[in-house]
Amino acid sequence: MASVSTHGNQDKPHLPPLSKQSLLFCPKSKLHIHRAEISKIIRECQEESFWKRALPFSLGSMLVTQGLVHHGYLAANPRFGSLPKVARTACLPVRSAKLSMG
After folding, report:
1. Per-residue model confidence as pLDDT tens digits over 67-91
2. What are the residue boundaries of the OCIA domain, all occurrences included (predicted)?
3. CB 66: neighbour CB atoms within 10 A?
4. Helix or strand or coil: residue 7?
5. Chain centroid, CA 62 distance in Å
6. Alpha-carbon span 93 to 75, nearest angstrom
7. Which residue, among 56, 40, 54, 43, has the nearest Cα to 102 in the 3D structure?
8. Are 85 and 74 spatial neighbours (Cβ–Cβ below 8 Å)?
């Protein structure tokens, strides 16, 4: 038979008694969260967002813009051709992804 430990409360945070808790008390907010761990998670999310969302969308919009210039729907610059329009189009998705993340 398995032995039952009487020290089952060790992994739970120490909470004040119910009579001393305010109505706005949240037990989850009392847990200790490491700032280094949070910053690591945010950095991973930003990197994943760039590689899986912003970069593919940017490349796709560049191709669409180049196609529109090539077929005459957008006018090319007389000196630089389609480069200014394609470059601006490439920067928009990456910039908006960075702005939405803070």
Report:
1. 999 998 888 888 888 888 888 888 8
2. 34-94
3. 17
4. coil
5. 23
6. 22
7. 43
8. yes
Q: What is the pLDDT of residues 11-70, one digit of tens each?
A: 555 665 666 566 666 666 666 667 788 889 889 998 998 899 888 998 999 999 999 999
Q: Which two tokens stand for residue 3?
A: 């032995």
Written as six digits, the tokens of 91 are: 């920067």
- φ/ψ of residue 98, rounded to 5: -70, -35
Token pair 């008694």 in the structure block, residue: 17
CA distance 31 to 38: 13
Residue 78 CA to residue 69 CA, distance in Å, equals 12
Confidence check: pLDDT of 6 > 90? no
Say whether pLDDT at 1 is over 80: no
| Tokens of residue 24, six digits | 């706005």
Instruction: Give the total residue count for the chain.
Output: 102
Dist CA 97 CA 49 (whole Å): 8
